[in-house]
Amino acid sequence: MAATANLPIEHAASTVPATKPAHSLTLPNEILTMIASGCDPAGLKNMRLASKLMHQIATKPFARKKFSRRRFIFTYQSMKALVDITAHPVFGPHLTCLTFGTHRMEKVNGYQWLDQQASHNDEAVRFDIYEAMHNAFIGNDHHIKMLTLALKNLKKCHNTGVILGVHDDLHQGITRRRGYAFEASYQGFSPEHVDINQTLYAVMESRRRSGCPFKTLKMCLSSSTGSLQDLEEDGADTLNSLLNKSRFGSGTTLDLHINIWQYASYSKLKILSGFTRIELSRHSFGECAISPPLLKSNESTHGMIWHAINKSDLQSILIETSNVDLDELVWFLQQHGKSLRKLDLRQIHMYASGSPTALALNFLRFIRSELPLTHLSIEGFEVGQTIVIPESGKMVYEGKDKVIEGLDKLIEEVDEMYEDASESELE
Fold first, then answer.
1. For residue 418, with 0-12 CB atoms within 10 Å meaning exposed, 13-18 middle and 19 or more buried, which class applies?
2. What is the DSSP string of 152-211?
3. How far apart are CA 85 and CA 236, in angstroms?
4. Taking CA 131 as the corner, what is the angle to CA 125 and CA 133, rounded to the nearest 5 degrees?
5. CB 304 within 8 A of CB 232
6. Measured distance CA(290)–CA(224) in Å, rounded
7. pLDDT above 90 covers what percent of the chain?
8. What does the alpha-carbon distance between residue 289 and residue 281 come to, in Å, rounded to a whole number?
9. Where along the chain do its domains lie?
10. pLDDT per residue over 381-394, tens digit each?
């Protein structure tokens, strides 16, 4: 109601109908759902607690954000939470990946990190209590029974595509990956003992008992714990069984995802489709004097796994964000020359101890003459400090004839456009 000459402003203001204060919860449900879907996981928790209305609307987005990939540890508190989550009618169906910590509480030369002074007696006793409690939980197979129940819950809600796996809780003595209820379970103590074999056995046995389909195994390990080497030495039978299921499994083969934490990031290896496809990220082929150093792709780091890769007939190889030596990369690709049909190279740096142009041309000519590719993708392939292939953007060639034609053009362009760097520019 507007103020007029016949109606004082004060009276006009007092007669305006009161309106409800506007806030986000008055928006349509569809808009609220969009807001919740785009909300950061850390903020969504508080948003969801704002009101009963938001609790109801944000349930599915909240589940996708907070319950798709979860880490747990083999303690009662953590496994109880897992069973509850999988039994939830909304949270359970949104789980996509479950990994379980490899670390345990265990005394080392007396008390874990405590000296023998009398002032530490109370802490030592407290440590003994929690260690005994966790050991009894695992010793009585309660972790396997509860994981079996959780997997059965997932079957009931038709969620049979969950990735199962293990993770190292610590890296160089520092906790990196905290499973659910980590603090509540360990009460300030650090679980120093690593046992990947028993952790992996528990996951495999629970899967077997539940009858839940097993399509992908994920291992997120630390380069400082030696977990992969322990699996090679003490769990060779288990690893062999996994590799055989991945290569020769009847029906659906097992995919393997192996992430090794090193230098502030993961080196990733995916073995897919019955050892016919692999994807490598942040790896190193050969002795590459490039910083930062990346995980070497050979049998010294991956052991039986890399041996199995070299013995397989790979049809597709993707390598990205990696450092390579020409001879080592060529040797690796030659192992699969007869079967390889698809090659993707993204953000690769080739170490150049000689002429970058000669190295680039030798590599392109090798691909053209020795690899019967029907698909080739190259993006950001650097040779030394002077050559980038392609010069800009990304090149994708589909079909055998197109691959050969594209390589011919690249070879011609490199030969014409690049001049070798001076000795001071060579690495």
1. buried
2. HHHHHTT----EEEEE-SEETTEE----TTHHHHHTT----EE-HHHHHHHHHHHHHHHT
3. 33
4. 105
5. yes
6. 21
7. 45
8. 18
9. 23-66, 67-225
10. 999 888 999 887 89
Backbone angles phi, psi at 224, to 5 degrees: -90, -15
Structure tokens at 191: 């679980």
pLDDT tens by residue, 285-298: 887 655 555 677 76
Which residue in the block uniquely carries the two structure tokens 């060529």?
330
For the chain, the residue count is 427
Token pair of 181 as six digits: 């209820």
| Amino acid at the residue 112 | Q
Q: Are strands 163-167 and 97-101 parallel, antiparallel or unpaired?
A: parallel
> In this structure, which amino acid lies at residue 52?
K
pTM of the model: 0.80
- Tell me which H or E stretch contains 221: strand 216-222
| 22-31, 120-129, 394-403: range with lowest mean pLDDT | 22-31
Nearest-5° Cα angle at 214, 213 to 220: 145
